[in-house]
Amino acid sequence: MSAILEQLAPESTLADDRYADIRRRAHQRLMQHGFPDLKTEAWKYTSLKLLEKRELSTASGDVVASPEALPFSADVIRFDGGLVDEAPTNLPAGVRLEPIDPVELVNLDYGDRAGAMAWLNLARFEQAWKLVIESVLDRPLVLAMTLPEGFSASVHPRLKIEVASGAEAVLIEQQRDHGEGLVNIVQDIELQRGARLRHVISRRNAGSVWVQRTRVSVAADADYRCCALELAGRLVRQDLAVHLLEDGANGEIDGVAFVDSRQHVDWHTAIDHEVGHTNSRESFRILADGSGVGVFNGRIHIQRGADDSHSDLNTANLLLSENARINTKPELEIYAEEVTASHGATIGQLEDSALFYLRSRGLPVDQAMALLKFGFAAAPLEQAQPAAVREWLNADLHSVL
Amino acid sequence: MNQTAQQVEQVIQQRYKAGFYTDIDSDRIRAGLDEEIVAMISAKKNEPEWLLEWRLKAFHHWQTMVGPNWAHLNLPPIDFQNIHYYAAPKQKDRPKSLDEVDPKLLETFDKLGVPLHERARLAGVAVDAVFDSVSVGTTFQKELKEAGVIFCSFSEAVQDHPDLVREYLGSVVPYTDNYFAALNSAVFSDGSFVYIPKDTRCPMELSTYFRINARDTGQFERTLIVAEPGSHVSYLEGCTAPMRDENQLHAAVVELVALEKAQIKYSTVQNWYPGDENGKGGIYNFVTKRGDCREDDSRISWTQVETGSAITWKYPSCVLRGDRSAGEFYSVALTHNHQQADTGTKMIHLGKNTTSKVISKGISAGKSNNSYRGLVRMAKRAHDARNYTQCDSLLIGKTCGAHTFPYIESANASAKIEHEATTSRIGEDQLFYCRSRGLDEEDAVAMIVDGFCKEVFKELPMEFAVEAKALLEISLEGAVG
């Protein structure tokens, strides 16, 4: 058994509850496939070797920290170390949070070693939750997860989010890490007919390894829009797959990531047009400074018969220092005819002429550079709604740059 | 009834004009692959000891490897023990001039439109013709010799210029590089060798024409081009094979070395038999092509038009080692019926101020799959390096696939990379425009495709551009409607 398997997947000590069989099966699959290495295509640029050296405890119940205050009114659901803090009583009308029935988890399949972290989640999760949004919410719903200093556990939160037909919501994931553990999240988001979800991910990490896998399914005329602000971390891997399942489904992803020294961020997105008359758009930017490594893999897949689908993917990247690295791979996989699909990718640096322009107007070089970086990074955040959320994201970005 | 069958046959023949078979006595070694076969090939070529050792090392390394499975291809397993690794038309000794070459062979190349005979002097292209495993003749040797250019078959080069071959063989594509390169290194039978001396501009276009003729054989040729400082050469490559129901393997290695300020332009029109409309037969074309811009200010340009082969797996690459060196890749890849292509390029920027440009046009029709797979890598010391990549795909029909897998890696903060890709179908408005001016649908499509590929065609030498355009039109026959 490899070191990483020994470290992460010892025999479970979890209670023999109604999820036990599911965990056992997942554990078997994990042992069968093992963990990905750099030869695994989906993990080509990201190594999990860091985890081999970490002493991770499994206790998570005592991880408690208060989330940062938000500058706008919102309903907040707190996750402490992956567990919802008891059954929240202050949920807004039209929102339910309940444990998932094990039947829903029986047939899950995460494939081979590329999906090892998802198998690990299924083998180790304590409680799987389902969040159901059934009406039009008038203020954002926040899922707050804050890991305090000294956090060194491995936690495996599992959450399903259902947005019912005709419901609308702004869902914000406010994720803050100050520890050195492992967070391994699996999320399934389901948008039913005509539902609308604005999904905001705001993440700022310290030393923890953060792996998150989000699968979104979008039904007829439903609209999923994700806006992400990734303010680095020791090692972050985000998989975000959007499946457009029925006519009129729309999927959009806008994101920006900033990495500095000893930080590694890897975003893998996939937009899958399973039927025709579906639209998608994606724009992702990375700024890499210090010895930071930024990875972006964006895939657009238009399946056979998904005629009249339209898709556009754009990724722009700034390399800001001699030791930083950016690896990007925008993929198109097209099997239908009447489609338009395009992607563009650039890697470059700040324009000297733009810097000169600002300096000639009296700005010191640091400020001029910060302004240019901010201008570049803030573009994808323009899509965030409502305005108060956008300003909050901008302020966060500003504080880092 | 009989007449109809004949007509159908004629149409098929017309679609792949190079699909005939030449009935010629051939000398063929037994099928299979082992140390003895490798030694037999080496002995047939009367090779020096060091080359046999090199082949055997490659063979042993190949035995430790497994075939690549990462390409977007549906590749049935290949029985490497069922292939004849050497087949050559019978002749007593290598002919000293083309007059001594078997007329049947000359006729074959005449039929293929290759100006092999000296009387085709007006064509102004020197040709090395490779038939199955051996070179059957090289034209304009005398004129080239006067200019100091060496252009001969690989086997001759091993005998006549062993030091040059030994210095450069495997220096760009080592036998450890990949599965098919290792296989080729073990069993390569012939190919072309080009050496352009310092400050020499090669007086004419050089060309190699590869022909697979014999049944159950594979072709494993090796091309090595060395351009000394300040030299310039333009090299063309063409290939065809008879129509057969079984698949045949072509695993070649091409190595280019460009020294200071040297320029190499390498053009390919690949027209191996693509298989029939049901996907039966055709050539598996697994080729490793790499150019090394070894010294400053050198330039390597790849241009390829890929219309043939059942399966293509090919990534002509440039290693931009010298400062200010430049790499270019222009490609048109057309797949039809059940053809599969996974092709693209690698641009590895190592030196300062290096530049590269990639223009790739993929056209998919029928039930084919066409993938562009490319890598642009800026190494840490590739200061101020630049890359521009454009890959466009055109879909004709509802049952084909077009894919793009670009890998872009940058470790230098002053390097700039731009990549853009589009996938679309031929617009109804474009078709309507052409048809309203009296063109039928097939001509309209051919015209639009020609426009789509123009950027690449203009990089080809003129004769090849005409041939490439005609090939595309033929390959697209039946793709519409």
UniProtKB/TrEMBL annotation, chain A:
It comes from the Bacteria. Residues 153-376 form the SUF system FeS cluster assembly SufBD core domain. GO terms for biological process: iron-sulfur cluster assembly. InterPro entries: Fe-S_cluster_assembly_SufBD (IPR055346), SUF_FeS_clus_asmbl_SufBD_core (IPR000825), SUF_FeS_clus_asmbl_SufBD_sf (IPR037284). This is SufD family Fe-S cluster assembly protein. It comes from Wenzhouxiangella limi.
Automatic annotation (TrEMBL), chain B:
It holds the Pfam family SUFBD_core. One of its GO terms (biological process) is iron-sulfur cluster assembly. Coiled coil: none annotated. Residues 142-201 form the SUF system FeS cluster assembly SufBD N-terminal domain. It comes from the Bacteria. Residues 210-452 form the SUF system FeS cluster assembly SufBD core domain. NCBIfam families: PRK11814.1 (NF008773), sufB (TIGR01980). Belongs to the iron-sulfur cluster assembly SufBD family. This is Fe-S cluster assembly protein SufB. It comes from Wenzhouxiangella limi. The lineage of its organism: Bacteria, Pseudomonadati, Pseudomonadota, Gammaproteobacteria, Chromatiales. The gene is sufB.
